[in-house]
Task: structure prediction
Amino acid sequence: METVERLIRSTQELLWERGYVGTSPKAIQVAADAGQGSMYHHFSGKAELAKTAIERSAAELRATAEEQFATDGTATERITQYLQRDREVLKGCRMGRLTSDPDVMTDPVLRAPVDQTFRWIRTRLAEIIAEGKQNGEYAESLDAQETAATIAAVLQGGYVLARAANSDEPFELAIQGLVKLLAGVTR
Amino acid sequence: METVERLIRSTQELLWERGYVGTSPKAIQVAADAGQGSMYHHFSGKAELAKTAIERSAAELRATAEEQFATDGTATERITQYLQRDREVLKGCRMGRLTSDPDVMTDPVLRAPVDQTFRWIRTRLAEIIAEGKQNGEYAESLDAQETAATIAAVLQGGYVLARAANSDEPFELAIQGLVKLLAGVTR
DNA sequence: GTCTATATGGCGATAGAC
DNA sequence: GTCTATCGCCATATAGAC
Result:
C-alpha cells in the first residue's frame, strides 16, 4: 500500500481510538510506518491529515449504513436490520466520539463531516419512516423527524453506556428496548 | 474560596470542556488562579486531581437527577420531568463525554465513577418503570431494564447529535420522539 | 518522495527557597 | 502553603540534504 494511503488509514484508526487531541503526528507516523518528512510532504500537517481521515470515515460510515437501508423489506425490517447489525460496540462510533473532541468541534472544517454524517442518517431514517406511514405500517400521527432522531440517539447513547460499563450489555438492552417501543406504534 | 476548592472546580469545568487528554495542569492552575507548587502540594498530580473532580461531578449529577426522580407523580410524569428538565445541551454530558477520553477509559480509577453513574441512572429509571408497572401505568410485558437503558441512551445520544449539529434541535427532537413512543406503552 | 537535523514551545513533574 | 527554578520529554513543525 502507498504511503499516503497508510497515513490516512492509520489516522482514521488513531482518531477512532484516541480522538484528535489525543493523537500526535509522531504516533501517526509510527502506525503508518512513514517518516516525518514523508508525512509533511503529503500533508500540510496534523489538521489536514485529520480532515482527510474524517471525511474518509464519514463516507465509509454512510456506505455501511446505506447497505441496511437500501434492502427491500418493510420500514420496520430495514430499521431493525440497521439497529441490530454487527457493531464493534466497545470502540464506540467513530463519528460520534469526535463530538467530544474540543479541537474537532472548534474547527469548522473538521466538524463539517461529522455534522453532515448525522444529518444524513437522521434524514435517511425519516424517509424510511415516512415510507412506512405511506404504506400503512405506522400511524399517520407518528412524527418521522422526531422518531428518526430518537433512533439515531439510542445508537449513539448505547455506545456511551456500553463504553462506560465496559460491556456490550447496556447497548444491547437499549436497542432491544427501542425495538419494542417501535413495535408499539406499528399497526 | 480556598485554593483546593478552586482547583477541583476548575478541573471539573475543564474536564467537561476539553476532556482529560485535552486538559493540562497549567490550564488548571490558570483557571484556578493557583500556582504550580500550590497544585502539587494539594494533589499528587493531574490524575489524582481528575479523580477528585470526576467523583465530585458524578455526585452532583446523581443529586440533580434524583431531584426529578424523587418528586411525587406518576412514573411517566417523573420520567418526563427528568427528560425535559433544563439542560446545557451543547456542552454535552460531563460523564458521557468522558467515555470518549482514551486515558479515562484506560484508567480503572478514573473510569469507575463514570461507570457507577450510568449504572445508577439505569437502575433508578428501571425502579421507576417497575413502580409504573405495579400500579398499572404500564403493561406487564414492558421490560424495565431495557426501557431504562433506552431512555438513558436517548439522552446521551441526544447530546451527541446536538453537538454534531451545533444546535439543540436534534436533542429536543429525540426527547420528544421518545416521550411519544413511551406514551404508546402507557395504559 | 523520504531522510535527518534542528527549533520552539508546552507537558507533567520535582526541588528547594520563602 | 505558595513561589520560582529547573528538568527531561514530547508535540508540531521547518529546513535542507539525498
In short: Chain B has one domain: 3-183. Chain B has a mean pLDDT of 98.
